[in-house]
Automatic annotation (TrEMBL):
Residues 227-238 have a biased composition (Low complexity). Residues 32-71 bind DNA. Keywords: Cytoplasm, DNA-binding, NAD, Repressor, Transcription, Transcription regulation. NAD(+) binds at residues 106-111. The keyword Transcription regulation applies. Belongs to the transcriptional regulatory Rex family. Modulates transcription in response to changes in cellular NADH/NAD(+) redox state. Residues 227-257 are annotated as: Disordered. Residues 95-196 form the CoA-binding domain. It comes from Catenuloplanes nepalensis. Pfam families: CoA_binding, Put_DNA-bind_N. This is Redox-sensing transcriptional repressor Rex. SMART domains: CoA_binding (SM00881).
């Protein structure tokens, strides 16, 4: 469990209301519910049944009801969940009622793509600054923001508390970048570099590695073909039931919290 510094320290400017202590797996599914609820709201739905929402979010409905019960949300029998109310509840629990600042460190191929990712803004995050150390890149404008030298991080963080630092540097530089983010008061790191970061207690690191996801899919394909052979994919050991088995795609792995 993470410890959090008192409000008012860098990265934690606002008062933090008491929150339910949710299972990590529930937390990982809440953004899926939120995405599905936003789509339902856009399509004009005012209420949704647990079954409909479960299908839209790609989870089973019993799990969904259990997850939402942790938020004190049980829906109304015969009516379902109020879409707007549930969006508000989930956004509140995820801390998305305030726009959070994100900085990107490492503006190479991946960093460029991330800097232009519209999903940050639409999901409650604002890219506040871009950092690199390459003199060729520093000073360039990318998607409307000027790339700054990483040495400017403390100054930027002092002016505009940073919620999350995204690391998209090569693995060799990632630990040093993480150390500098932590020193600047950042308590949430999203790490794309293929390495394990060491951070102090109270700092949450999520790791995203697409190669690991591919390797996991490879394992499932290998397992299916070795268990069922070319003839069919039913009745596999371990609960795999055939084509279309939906595995959690929790690409981000909690580390160091
Ligand atoms: N997680 C994933 O799914 C995934 C996918 C693709 C790439 N990656 C990883 O993302 C990272 C970036 O990949 P890329 O293809 O964009 O690399 P790249 O070489 O194009 O870009 C890396 C950038 O980081 C900068 N940099 C290096 N050291 C730095 C430091 N100490 N501080 C600040 N900036 C620094 C470089 O100047 C460069 O601009 C790599 O670690 C790569 O393995 C991860």
């Amino acid at each position: 469990m993470s410890q959090h510094p008192p409000p008012g320290t860098p990265g934690h400017p606002a008062a933090v209301p008491a929150l339910p202590d949710l299972p990590e797996a529930t937390v990982a599914r809440l953004p899926e519910y939120l995405r599905a609820l936003h789509n339902l709201a856009e399509a004009g739905h005012e209420t949704v049944s647990s079954e409909e929402l479960a299908v839209a979010a790609g989870v089973n409905s019993a799990k969904l009801r259990k997850d939402l019960s942790h938020l004190g949300s049980y829906g109304t029998r015969g009516v379902g969940y109020d879409v707007t109310l549930l969006v508000d509840q989930i956004e509140s629990v995820l801390g998305l009622t305030q726009r959070r600042s994100v900085v990107l460190v490492g503006l190479g191929n991946l960093g460029h793509a991330l800097a232009g990712y519209a999903g940050f803004a639409s999901r409650g995050f604002r890219i506040a600054a871009l950092f690199d150390v390459d003199p060729e890149l520093v000073g360039q404008r990318i998607h409307g923001l000027t790339v700054r030298h990483l040495d400017e991080l403390p100054q930027v963080a002092a002016e505009d508390p940073i919620s999350v630092g995204v690391i998209s540097t090569p693995a060799e530089g990632a630990q040093s970048v993480a150390d500098q983010l932590v020193a600047a008061g950042v308590t949430g790191i999203l790490n794309f570099a293929p390495c394990v970061l060491t951070v102090p207690a109270g700092v949450d690191v999520r790791k995203v590695d697409l190669a690991i996801e591919l390797q996991i899919l490879s394992f499932h394909q290998h397992r299916k073909s070795s268990a069922a052979g070319p003839a069919g994919l039913t009745a596999l050991p371990g609960g795999l039931t055939g084509p279309g088995t939906h595995h959690s795609t929790d690409a981000a792995e909690a580390v160091g919290s």
